[in-house]
Sequence to fold (121 residues):
Amino acid sequence: MLRFLIADDHATMRQLIIQIIRDDWPDASFGEVEDGLQLVSTVTSHDWDLVVADITMPVINGLEALQSIKEQWPALPVVIISIHSEKGYIDRAFRLGAAWFIHKPMLQQELAGAIRQILVL
Fold:
């Protein structure tokens, strides 16, 4: 069973992400957090297969959380999602170790395919 950790400060977005993943992996389990600090601390609580994290979150943003996660768990794949599509955000996400970057308007079209490629499913 795959385990996904979803980080976004909006509950409706977290539920959308879960539904997109559940459509392809109905037996998957999920954790949810609403800020970057919770994300970093929750990564340690379970053996996650993949993290989906927004950039814009309170306390610490998704890119700062990504940096902390990759320092401690370099093999854990993190998909960064964002309403921001500027090249600077994308470049920084990949420099910090993101496995994938998805512009939020493309989430429904791209997330399942990205997960398949990252996890080689």
